[in-house]
Amino acid sequence: MGLDADGILFYGFPLSNNDDDGYGFTPPWRSEDDPYGDWEEFLATKMGIVRPDVPYNQNDTPPELKKFWEDKRRYLEGLNCVVGTYGYHDEPGYYVAVNDCHITAHYGDVKKLDYFELAYKAGWDRQLQHFCDLLEVKYEQPGWYLTNYLGG
User: Which SS3 state, helix, strand or coil, does residue 7 take?
Assistant: First the structure.
């Protein structure tokens, strides 16, 4: 199994611990109890959308899990923001981005950009501020960023 290299262009900002470079940032959705915590589940749980305690069965997904996934998806789509990772998969940095302008080119792909994808839209900064409040992370002045991710 090899590593995938992705190029990422986004409107938002990297998450960091004050003046560091973003690496070593410990996000609030991860803890000693849950070192692999998921930001999506973190936000959904805060909003009362809690994963049911039923076993997952690949051949016959329980309806409670289907409902949880659908409710979570709908809630997160409404926020129009995402958390992404950059750098190397063993020690990633994190960023927040507006979903409307979060563009990834996977290794070997060439992606044509449309001017309208890159045109700032009113409300993006407000969406990011609200998203950061929910995530319990510091809001910073957003801008356009180009980065990469090398992961497995």
Answer: strand
Integer distance in angstroms from the first to the last C-alpha of the chain? 7
Choose among 141, 144, 148, 39: nearest CA to 86.
Answer: 148
pLDDT mean values, one per 10 residues, the chain (152 residues) = 82 77 72 79 91 84 90 93 89 90 89 81 94 94 93 73
Other CB atoms within 10 Å distance of the CB of residue 50: 13
How do beta strands 143-151 and 81-88 pair?
Answer: parallel
Q: What is the pTM of this model?
A: 0.84
- Structural domain spans, the chain: 4-151
CB–CB of 72/44 below 8 Å?
yes
Give the pLDDT of residue 56: 79
